[in-house]
Each structure stands twice: as structure tokens, then as C-alpha cells.
Design a protein that fits this description.
Blueprint: H1 3-10, E1 12-13, H2 22-28, E2 33-36, H3 44-61, E3 65-71, H4 72-82, H5 91-94, H6 109-122, E4 133-138, H7 142-156, H8 158-168, H9 178-186, H10 194-206, H11 208-242, H12 247-268, E5 277-280, H13 283-286, H14 302-309, E6 314-328, E7 337-341, H15 349-354, E8 360-364, H16 365-368, H17 372-375, E9 378-381, H18 392-396, E10 397-400, H19 402-405, E11 408-415, H20 425-429
Parallel strand pairs: 2-5, 2-6, 3-4, 3-5, 6-11
Antiparallel strand pairs: 1-8, 6-7, 8-11, 9-10
Helix pairs in contact: 3-6, 7-8, 7-11, 8-10, 9-11, 10-11, 11-12
């Protein structure tokens, strides 16, 4: 039996039926943390299938947290809409906070449909139970998080707001590009703002009891939002300084922040019975780094940390594809393009899955992962917000042992680009196939 024939034997086909993921939900069981990855930041099927699984986890297993690879303030606006506590007219308007590159990651048609579903679901939740929330766990929003802390304090304690403004003024002598601050502080051109951001977080925490005594549950949610922003500012300040000390340092800070945010969310919602969290992020964040070459470079990730802290309560699920199209840019900050995804390279997990001849399937790696066909170290593809097919092997592949990286994997052989809400002529035109004009 060939390797691909063996994989075909253990694969569980996906047909688009309502019961496609029954066995996967059974495998998830009583897990409190379900991490749903993606092999790119711009593939429709990854977003769509992830949302489908998430809806079932919320409706059937009582999950109340959806934590995404996005900034806290932007996602919290969506959270308020999903819980019916702000004035946004619809999901498209609620998603307007996502203005930072790459906007298509969350301002896309699948995100709109999911957020509307979430709002509709919450409208029918028992008032005594916790509604499902939508939260960001990334740390790029240094300045907007500063603004959020100041806005909160202006409402509850103007004197505290003045002190916060003086502390955060440390960042004012540079532009609002936090990388400029990080570079200037690293080379010693300016003093770092580390002491100031720590002092602000400590004061906010020390005054928590006073703020909470005012408006009950509403006050608790607003304080939690503000405190997470203050903690984000502290971690972002450190992150932007670490960017100029090497990739591993900044990567590890970012993923530790993600896990801290997830833990804070679960602790905040502890009034509900055993709160459960779903995490949406790239495979590179959610697959256990110890099973990849990342670990050889001193890098860890959120999947590894979650497994270490909650060893019997976590389920890590990855996604792969062989070919199709993807929404991505050619350079950081460049326009979104609809690019062709080249067929996966020989020797990759994606090629192995393609050779089964199955268009869509998933594999339980916990039960099948010890078999040598899957355990053998192979290359695996990762496309972020930038896709450069001309340097694909170097730019987008890494070595991994898939069964140690994930508990399950979902493979969709041919995929298409996720549709941005702001479609441009560049995206609409797409990319000519490599065989143009001969069609062979």
C-alpha cells in the first residue's frame, strides 16, 4: 500500500453535509480550548469551515469565547455588536475598526456572515447565561489601546486620566508608528517608556475595586476592556523594542501575549460555568512549535503554551490545501491581490494529501498519528499576508511532524481566495494562470 493509499484509508471525507463534523466534535469531547488554524490568512474555505465548526461548538458545547488573531480594540467593537451593546447597524459597520493592514483578514464576507450569526445566537441566549463573545488577542494596537485607556479613565476618574495622559506622553515625541519608537529606544536615541506603561497598568489594577463599586456587571466589563488595553500597551512597548533584537524574541513575546489574553478572558468569564475558548489564528501560531523547525530557532507559540498549561483540555486543529487561489499582498502594506497558489511541492504533507484523490477530508491524528507515513518529517506550507510564489520553498515551507503539531488536520485540496469587503480592481482582475494563453 502506498503512502497516499494509507492516508485515504484513514481519512474521513467531508461532503458538505450537516453531520460532516459529528466525529470531530466527538473527538473534541470536553476540551475547553479548541484552536482552529489556517494555512493562509486569505483562504475562503479556511474561514468558512472554521466558522462552521465554531458555530457548533458554541451552540452544542457551550463555548463562550472566540479569540482571534486581531487587535483587542478592533475586535471588542465587534464583540459589543454581537452582544447588542453598541450602535453599529450591521456586522459590516462593526468590522470597520479593522483599518490596519491587512484589512481583508477580518473585513471579508465570511467574517460578516459569522458575526451576524453570533449576534442572532446571542439574542436567544438565556439572560442568566454568558453570551458568546468575539475578542482580539494580538498586540499591534499600541496607540489605539492608549486611546481606549484614556477614554475609559476620562469617564470614570478624570484625575486618573490626567496621570495616564502624562505617562503615555512618553510616546508623543515620535509618530504613531510604533516601530519608530522601538528602533529609537533600542539604539538609545530615546529613553524607553517601559516604566511608564507598567506604572499605568499597576494603577489601573489597584483602583479596580473602586471602579467596580459603581455600576455592577457593566462596570466589570468596561474595566476588563480597559485593563486589557493597558496590559496590551505594556506588552506592545516591549514587543516593538524586541523587534530589533531578533525574530525569536519578538515572536515569543507576541505569542505569550496571545495566551495571556486567552487566560484573562477565561478568568474574567469565570462566573459562567467552566468557560470554554475557541481560538482562530494561523497554523504557525496554533500548531505546537515543538513539532516544527521553529523550535530549533528558539521560538515557541500559542499552541505549545496552551498544551503545556492545559495538557488535557486542549484540541489543536490545523488546515492544509494543495492549490487554488489566495488573497495576499506582494509586500507589507501593499494592496490585496487574488493570487494563484501553486501546487504543493513534492515531499510535502499537502502533496501526500493531494495524492489520495479526495477533495476534502479530515484526519484524527491522535489515533492515526503514530503511523510512520504521517510521523515522517515532511515539509508543510504556510502563507501569511504576503505570498511570494517565486521564492516559495524558502518563503513558505518549513519542516514539521504533523501528528505532534496538531490533534487533527482538515485538508481541502482546491481552495479559493477569501473575498474582501473592499474589492479593488487589482483583486478583481486576479492573476493569469501560468499556462496562459495556451490552456495546457
Amino acid at each position: 500500500m502506498t503512502d497516499s493509499e494509507f492516508v485515504r484509508e484513514i481519512a474521513q471525507p467531508l461532503t458538505g453535509a450537516a453531520n460532516d463534523y459529528d466525529a470531530l466534535l466527538e473527538l473534541i469531547g470536553d476540551a475547553r480550548f479548541v484552536l482552529l488554524g489556517e494555512a493562509s490568512h486569505g483562504t475562503h474555505e479556511f474561514y468558512f469551515e472554521r466558522a462552521a465548526i465554531t458555530k457548533r461548538l458554541i451552540a452544542e458545547k457551550g463555548f463562550t469565547v472566540v479569540a482571534i488573531e486581531a487587535d483587542w480594540p478592533d475586535a471588542y467593537r465587534v464583540n459589543r455588536y454581537a452582544r447588542g451593546t453598541n450602535q453599529d447597524r450591521d456586522a459590516k459597520e462593526a468590522l470597520l475598526g479593522f483599518r490596519r493592514f491587512p484589512t481583508w483578514m477580518w473585513r471579508n464576507t465570511v467574517a460578516v456572515e459569522f458575526v451576524e450569526w453570533l449576534r442572532g445566537f446571542n439574542q436567544h441566549v438565556d439572560p442568566k447565561k454568558t453570551p458568546a463573545g468575539f475578542f482580539g488577542m494580538d498586540l499591534y494596537s499600541l496607540h489605539s489601546s492608549i486611546d481606549a485607556v484614556l477614554n475609559y479613565l476620562e469617564k470614570v476618574d478624570p484625575d486618573a486620566a490626567k496621570r495616564a495622559r502624562r505617562r503615555y506622553a512618553c510616546f508623543d515625541h515620535l509618530s504613531r508608528d510604533p516601530q519608530e519608537y522601538g528602533y529609537a529606544a533600542t539604539v538609545g536615541a530615546i529613553e524607553s517608556c517601559e516604566d511608564e506603561v507598567v506604572e499605568q497598568l499597576v494603577e489601573l489594577r489597584n483602583k479596580a475595586a473602586e471602579f467596580l463599586s459603581r455600576d455592577g456587571e457593566v462596570a466589570a466589563d468596561e474595566l476588563f476592556f480597559a485593563e486589557q488595553n493597558a496590559r496590551l500597551v505594556k506588552n506592545a512597548e516591549q514587543y516593538y523594542r524586541s523587534m530589533f533584537r531578533g525574530r525569536a524574541s519578538s515572536w515569543n513575546l507576541r505569542d505569550r501575549h496571545m495566551v495571556e489574553t486567552i487566560e484573562a478572558l477565561v478568568a474574567h468569564l469565570n462566573g459562567s460555568r467552566h468557560p470554554k475558548a475557541i481560538v482562530w489564528a494561523h497554523n504557525s501560531h496554533l500548531g505546537d512549535a515543538r513539532a516544527t523547525e521553529m523550535s530549533q530557532h528558539g521560538e515557541l507559540n500559542a499552541g505549545q503554551l496552551i498544551r503545556e498549561r492545559f495538557p488535557d483540555e486542549a484540541m489543536l486543529i490545523g488546515f492544509t490545501t494543495h492549490h487554488g487561489s489566495v488573497t495576499a499582498a506582494s509586500d507589507w502594506g501593499a494592496p490585496a491581490e487574488r493570487k494563484n497558489v501553486r501546487p504543493a511541492l513534492p515531499g510535502s504533507y499537502e502533496e501526500l494529501f493531494h495524492e489520495t484523490g479526495l477533495p476534502r477530508f479530515w484526519i484524527d491524528l491522535r489515533s492515526a498519528g503514530q503511523i510512520g507515513v504521517l510521523q515522517r518529517r515532511r515539509i508543510e506550507r504556510a502563507i501569511g499576508v504576503i505570498y511570494r510564489p517565486e521564492s516559495e520553498r524558502l518563503s513558505h515551507y518549513f519542516h514539521a511532524r504533523l501528528p505532534e503539531q496538531f490533534d487533527a488536520v482538515i485538508h481541502i485540496d482546491e481552495t479559493r481566495a477569501v473575498e474582501p469587503l473592499e474589492r479593488t480592481s487589482v483583486w478583481d482582475e486576479g492573476e493569469l494562470p501560468e499556462t496562459y494563453p495556451f490552456k495546457v
